[in-house]
Amino acid sequence: MRRRKGQLAGILFLLPDLMGVCVFALIPMAEVVRRSFQSAVTSQWVGLKNYKEVLGNTAFRLAVTNTLKFTAVCIPLLILLSLFLAVLLQKLRVGGKLLKSAFLIPVAVPAASVVLVWKVVFHSNGLLNGLISGMGGQKVGWMTTGAAFWVLVISYLWKNLGYDMVLWMAGLAGIPTEIYEAARVDGAGEWKCFTQITLPNLMPSLYTISVLSFLNSFKVFREAWLVAGDYPQQSMYLLQHLYNNWFRELSFDKIAAGSVLTSAVVFALILLLKRTWDRG
Amino acid sequence: MKGNSQRWIKRAAAAGAAVCLAAAGAFSTVWGEETELIDGSAMGRYVESDMPLPEGLVTSAMTAMEDGTLRILGADMGEEGSGQMGFWDSSDGGATWEMTAAFPKEYGDVYFSAAALAPDGGGAAVEMDVSGNDESEWNFNFFSFDPQGNVTETFLGNMQEAGDQIPNSLVFTSEGTLGALCYGGKMVLLDRGTGEVTAQLTEGSGELLYAGKDEFLLLTNASELMRFDGESGEPLERDEALENALFGDGSTYYVTIGGSYPIVMTSDSEGRVYYCTQEGIFAHTMGGGAVEQVVDGTLNTLSNPAIGLQAIVAADQKFYVRYMDQNGYSRLACYTYDPEMPVTPERELTVYSLEENDGLRQLISQFQKQYPDTYVNYQVGMSGQEGITASDALRTLNTDILANNGPDVLMLDGISVETYQEQGLLADLTEILDGVAASEGLLENIAYAYRNEEGTWAVPTRFSIPVAVGESGLLASAGSLEELASVAGDQGNLLPYAAACLPESLYPVYAGGWKNEDGTINQELLAQFVTGVKQIYDAWISGASQDQLEMLEYYKQAGLEAGTSDVGGYVMSLLDGKCRLGLGELGDMLGYSGIVSVNKTTEDTAIAPLNGLESGVFVPSSIVSILNTAKEQERAKDFVTYLLSAQGAGQQQWDGFSVNALAFESALTTATFEEGSFSSTSSNNQTGEMVELIYSWPTQEEQETLRQMVNGLNTCADLDRVTKDAVLENLRKCMDGEMGTDEAVNAIMQTVNLYLAE
Description:
The structure holds two protein chains of two kinds. By secondary structure, chain A is mainly α. Chain A has helices at residues 2-35, 49-55, 58-91, 96-108, 111-122, 127-134, 147-173, 177-185, 190-217, 221-228, 239-248, 252-279. Chain A has twelve helices and no strands. Helix content of chain B is 31%, strand content 31%. Chains A and B meet through helix 3 and helix 11 of A and helix 5 and helix 22 of B.
């Protein structure tokens, strides 16, 4: 009886949050799934037609490829770099706090300001090309060639490095110093301590950081869109560009089908990640 | 039970209507008219009607006399150059007018720079005699009229000697005191008989002067309202409520066009002041705390951006507003209280356009007048203030449509007709078009541009023609990129503005030609266009003088190159030899008159359609459609019919030729100016020589040439926004040397291919 009461209280506590999730996530998602089987405006049942169209759409394939490529390049780079910096800053006795704040500044800079700097630096007659020309080099079309992809990668890393670093540092702070002291008494060096103590203890943090970094990677669209509009250089054309343009063209049916496919992949990836971690 | 619920519904409706009434400060009445509730709807508002003025009458001032008669001071310009000045009176509220006093014939041609009538029927005016060569030599005379029309003339001086004592605005108080605002903004009181300054009230800064009951109201250029006693000229206490209402939202009132004003004011015998702006007519009791809207300008002509207000008179529980229409003619509108008209129109028709369209606004104000039960809610996607892009605006529009909150009528300028048609959102307009075609006739080669086997989904109600103007020997080369490049190299052939606008001018006749049958772009043809335009531009740069290069830079910095040029703008340059060829669009008869008039002097100036990869091209504009989701389907059809009608076409004159055959023929054959009465002058900035072009209306033969040109139009220009933006943006970068031609073509192809793949 008491157990039932406890369960009821738990459910009651969960209920407001569950309702929010239902109203703002689950029900809209169900609506998107329904729309993915219907025509855009007249809502006629079209079966799998939208999925076929989306999968056969070269713009969709390009956007998926670019998005996956971006994720595959950025996430490992970000995780490794931020971990390296977190360990380094933790070891620093002087100026560590100052540097930590400095790395966090980009998180607070609004996307519109980033874009302004971006335009000044990477314009064909911008600062960077001015520097290259001054040193006798050839100008680079930063925003009009494949280099645009790397501009996007660097921008993402610059913006998110501080945030991930802080997450790592929180993980590092949770490792008891006694373990390190014991290891050092046993003759373990820095590298041994890092691989045998630090890394295994950071595994729970790695899962959270990976998921957060993955989700943050979708936000890089803001900068890409603000700097290059609806149709950026091909290498930085992401899924959000496509959805944005489809919305302009009233292709709600394709957006729905594309969203269902994308959600399925993201969900599968997160589940896979979780399972790997759970096993580990 | 059922009766109970019905009673509650009725009560709720009545309560709602009462709340509406209480909140309807915007529809206040001023002479004791009562707003009533009939069937839950609040009834009673002022409605507009046109009061015909005598034909050919040019009005200078208007008043309501003590016995209620309306009086106009004006000149009948019926015969060429022989006007008859005098008083015209109407004792039936403006329905009919009669000349009651004719001034001596020698005053027939005088030009009044300021005039006012007093409630006793007399008046005063200032003549500007511009026969001197220099502005400083212009002479001014003061005219005093007694109520019977006897005239006394006094010389005031010339601009150089007495400039700051010469009135440019006159006004009478109800007691007959004459106040004036002089050049330079000084306010003075004048002797009514001689125009002599009897008192100076301010040093300067005056912008507009009006009269309340026994007082003067001065609007300054520092956004202040000053009051002066009507007799002594002593300053009066400020009226904060009126001042706040006038300037509180940051409004300013500057006179930019002679003879019309952004605001006009009057008063009645009870001491109330009325002012009229584009927003409507407002009432205020001096010293009171409230300013109430009496007439809503959005429901009538007052909101028409093409009109200029001239005067307002309150008489016999009516308002009379004298205004100048888009053609410069004086008109009189009367606002009468109609107790049977709903306070707010019963129907609301929503019209959406991506960009502001003044012509459409003009038309809407006239449509509302014809359908007083309908309020037209004109929504603009990109008002130019929020900095949103076309794509942003379209996404917002689509969200509204998806939420079943979209507009009834969609103007498709800059919006893809194909997209909305493919999604099944557009209604078939064939029935409407066929109706207008049967009754008034349509230029079917243009009006049915968006017809396919299933229906007609949109109609371009106006159009313009991409043309080349200039020496007949050069016209043949205008469409060929190679020949244009060789022509552009000679200094003096093309104006800097024409060089700056090359991409926009040539795009309509080339864009359709790049498209393959499957809708993709032929890269080779696109590359030829980009290379060709770049070569023309480079050739022009290599032959341009320093002055021309500076002008080009100016256009670029001012962003003026991002549009197509109206070929009417080339006429003075063609006449004085500043250029020999111009590219642009022809969209009105004034432009065409200019070209044929230049030819009368040069005997070698011609106009020809611009041919590129396509020929017979026209540029559609004011493209209208009805959404299938429209809540006001019937009224939307009425609106489109009105837009297509000759009557509607007459309201919207500067957005291109009308597709209505009757309106087009009327525009073609009806001269809007007397032969020799309309001219334009400019000075050559190198020689300083003045050149004058006297406009002639096209002869029958010249009219026929244009008629044939229009009949030969059979290709609607491809104006897809994404493709056009991609081409023009990259082409401009290429012209400026920011990227090579190959790079520009690749960038265009990449964008367009992505767009098409989507």
